[in-house]
């Protein structure tokens, strides 16, 4: 494996922002992954594992260690009656796998169509959209364990999946490098149509699997959540903030702060005394509408949760907008928004 020096990271991210990596290598095999870890350890360098780059904000000063780009390829399908295991290398594009599953008639990931990024990133933040999460279909995740310098397979139950979380982005954050993910899909399962946007799209009709994929792609495109080269509204890291979970008892106060009736506040009770609030709604109501501009940074014209690079934004510019929004939502609603993308580079 070749180790290149001072490679700009911006082209590897959907934000198109960020300085160079001091060292950069493409891991095309599991041996390469182990070699990259060794290189970093021997050089006493921090290691950053780069996947599809769709949920990242890279510092303007870049990354002072080794950026290891996961380029392992290959999808194997093992069929057993109406069920199948889709075993995909971490460097495969996620949407290629979603498209293949739908084309072969297997349900389980159709609502996750059009999500940018790679297969390896999906278990890390338990990618979810339109009522599906990868934790529902993942059987196991093959990882390189940097503590024991060995490959191991984590069963679904060992991954600690939650909303936008797993052990891979919490307790085991710098420990594991994903090299392969196995998904259990099913031809007998009906396509999932639970999310409000999808129900509205089909108006009571029961769609076939390919129609669900088409609908999800259309809805995502409407929100600027499908990458279109050259289109500023999709030059983002998707949702920039997580949807906060707050006590149900706060509903009246939140409605009051926005001068609307409680029933007009979009909220999703979790059945345990809390509710999830759409961060996009809070952002807009705190005075940051779609299309908001702060220098070269901005908010997408199509979705208030996507901070965008309007053309020549810097990471510092995006962070300035983040701070303005977090402070605004805190002041207006007393709610603390938490950014979703991973920060790469020196601590801010
Ligand atoms: N809304 C606004 N303004 C907007 C957009 C939305 O007020 O500009 C409000 C509306 O009330 C809307 C509600 O927010 O009904 C929910 O919006 P949406 O259905 O677009 O979903 P979301 O909660 O904003 C989440 C995920 C998305 C995922 C969609 C669909 C998070 C942080 N985001 O967004 O994931 O695609 O649901 O399931 O959970 C991502 O993580 O990058 C991502 C795009």
Detailed description of the structure:
The chain has 348 residues and is α+β, with helices and mostly antiparallel strands. The chain is 23% helix and 26% strand. The chain contains eight helices and 19 strands. It has a five-stranded antiparallel β-sheet. A four-stranded mixed β-sheet has the order 1-2-5-3, covered by helices on one side. Bound molecules: uridine-diphosphate-2(N-acetylglucosaminyl) butyric acid. The site of uridine-diphosphate-2(N-acetylglucosaminyl) butyric acid (EPU) has 20 residues, from helix 7. Uridine-diphosphate-2(N-acetylglucosaminyl) butyric acid binds next to helix 7.
For the structure shown, list the relevant keywords.
348 residues; alpha+beta; five-stranded antiparallel sheet; four-stranded mixed sheet; 19 strands; 23% helix; 26% strand; globular; binds uridine-diphosphate-2(N-acetylglucosaminyl) butyric acid
Ligand inventory: uridine-diphosphate-2(N-acetylglucosaminyl) butyric acid
Strand content: 25-35%
Structural class: alpha+beta
Shape: globular
Q: What is the succession of H and E elements?
A: EEHEEEEEHHEEEEEHHEHEEHEEEHE
Helical content class = 10-25%
- Uncertain runs are none
Q: Give the radius of gyration.
A: 20 Å
Largest sheet: 5 strands, antiparallel
Distance separating the two termini: 32 Å
- DSSP strand count: 19
Q: What integer is the average pLDDT?
A: 96
Counting H and I runs of at least 4 residues, what is the number of helices?
A: 8
Q: Strands of the largest sheet, in order across it?
A: 6-7-12-10-11
